[in-house]
Design a protein that fits this description.
With about 140 residues, the chain is α+β, with helices and mostly antiparallel strands. Helix content is about 35%, strand content about 35%.
């Protein structure tokens, strides 16, 4: 039986959880790309477009964060993180499949970027995202529907 993930709007009292989640899931990839952020810089990235953020909840526990903007022709995933304890359980795959299904119904593209070396890139590729551009430290990907 699949685990039911619920979403709730992120609120300011979630900031300590979101900082811990970001450090747990992103710090190694940031450091590997020579990006050393202070706590304040991490917090600035968390609150950027904060109104678009949703906390992922499983069995009453916060397990991740999804920040996404949606316009008429595109979905843009700005942040997508799942706590390491919950990775490898197809949670990310199922959430992304749901996003892709919604985007397909709306005839929209889905865009995201991923730091080079981040193992999430293989998940995105399995789901049909293709590299459309590459920066010095990130890969920009799109799912054409």
């Amino acid at each position: 039986m699949k685990e039911a993930i619920n979403f709730r709007k992120a609120i300011l009292s979630d900031l300590p959880f979101l900082l811990q989640l970001r450090l747990e899931t992103m710090e190694e990839y940031l450091v590997s790309q020579g990006i050393n952020l202070s706590v304040e810089q991490h917090q600035q990235r968390i609150v950027h477009k904060f109104e678009c953020g949703q906390i992922l909840v499983l069995e009453g526990r916060e397990i991740g964060f999804l920040k996404m903007t949606i316009s008429k022709s595109e979905y843009k995933i700005l942040q997508f993180q799942i706590a390491k304890k919950y990775q490898g359980r197809s949670i990310g795959t199922e959430i992304l499949k749901s996003i892709l299904a919604n985007a397909k119904r709306e005839d929209s593209l889905v865009h995201l970027s991923v730091l080079k070396g981040n193992k999430a890139q293989s998940l995105y590729e399995r789901l049909g995202f293709v590299k459309v551009d590459e920066g010095k430290k990130s890969v920009f990907m799109t799912k054409f529907l």
